[in-house]
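Below is our example:
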Amino acid sequence: MKAIFFDANGVIYYRQEQNRYLKDFLLKNNLALPSGDMLSVQTEKLHDAALKGQVPQEDYWNAILETCGVKDLSLLKKGRAAIKKDHGNIVLFPMVKVTLDSLKERGFLVGIVTDAGVSKLTKLAWFKKQGLDIVWDAYANSMDLKTRKPDLYMFEAALEEAGVTADETVFVGHDARELNGARRAGLRTIAFNYDPGVEADYFVDKFEDLLTLPFLRQVE
């Protein structure tokens, strides 16, 4: 094994206070966030398009706000600012930095394969604010590649950038569809913070448990 690719949201980081700033904004304007199901129905297509870089992220945010009843242009601008603040309000899972540093010291290449409506620079700035400032050997971003996991191209792009083959690489994820996509691309899979019923080659309960897996003790 030579390389380890990670999903970002749900594996490297999570959002502890979902929609905190959006909820505050709506409350100040006597509005409320609809149920998750209703919001998904109204905005799902735009969300998918934004993650694929087909429409600006702001279009998706406007759809969220309009579903909440925000119509005024000045309020839409303030609402987008609140959503943007929520978007960057991330928390690293415990021991992420220590574990990634250890894997790099062992000689492994590390990469990110992420569905994101923000640029690589934006997400890396989020990481840096949380104290994670390593050099990623590959970074596959859905917005740039115009597709999303589990499309094999997401994984193939990361493999090409890192200069490794699928059988030399493992993917750490939490979502069943994405883990299945990695497996179809020929990568071994590790499930962390995983959804019920996922299938993977290996499972870890703590991020630092990656360091105990026999094939990650040294580069093969």
